[in-house]
Please model this.
Amino acid sequence: MDGRTRLRLDVSYDGTDFSGWAVQPTRRTVAGVLTETLDLVLGAGAATGLTVAGRTDAGVHATGQVCHLDLPATVWREHEGRLLRRLARLLPGDVRVRAMTEVPADFDARFSATFRRYEYRVTDAPWGVEPLRRRDTLAWPRPLDLAAVNAAAAGLVGEHDFAAYCRRKENATTLREVTRLDWRRDPDGILVATVQADAFCQNMVRSLVGAMLVAGDGRRPAAWPASLLTRRERSSEVTVAPAHGLALVEVGYPADPAEYARRADLTRRLRVPAEA
Model:
């Protein structure tokens, strides 16, 4: 890329007060806040091509979000040693850029990714959510059985058409490969679902969680979430779990940077990109 440097940004944010990732007129978004702050530090329009691994919805958090952007090489050389600290001073407290790394020009935060991993936090404690965790943990009004939610999860692992769990987008496939889906109960009693796939379509993670929770509290059999995979349109029986319990915790990329371009080409051929 002539005269420009591509940077990978590792980003965390509390999604509570954001209307999602993508820039929207008149709304506060993560991309909007990042762009405004970069313009303030580097000059308007210096940073271009901001591209994210997964465009999270309003209220969804991230501890492992990844995006990339391009800077004039001269601007990067001028600011490289102090840019991270300058952003830390100027960004609001609910978004942090934790690392900025120079990467090859064919690195694509979205298309070079090999997986996205999310976690969803739920408490079934009769008193509800601890006050300090109310922004990232869902209070469930019924007792949840760990074995039941894991039995429900097992039937959803693998490559399937997740149309029943996705908000349909024109010309976009709902075929996805879920490589990990399981629940644990932490020592503090919180149930945490881990969901990993090559990619997700819009509302898919929260829809899967919503289906598993009603199996976990006994209102549906453990086999019910998997039975919906025969559907070819969104199921009205599935309730989308609230956004605030969900966080994007990791995005994976090829270990060899020489594979970035090949992975991006493969992803583009496999599917029309969709939101997670």
Q: What stands out?
A: The longest helix spans residues 30-42. The chain has a mean pLDDT of 94.
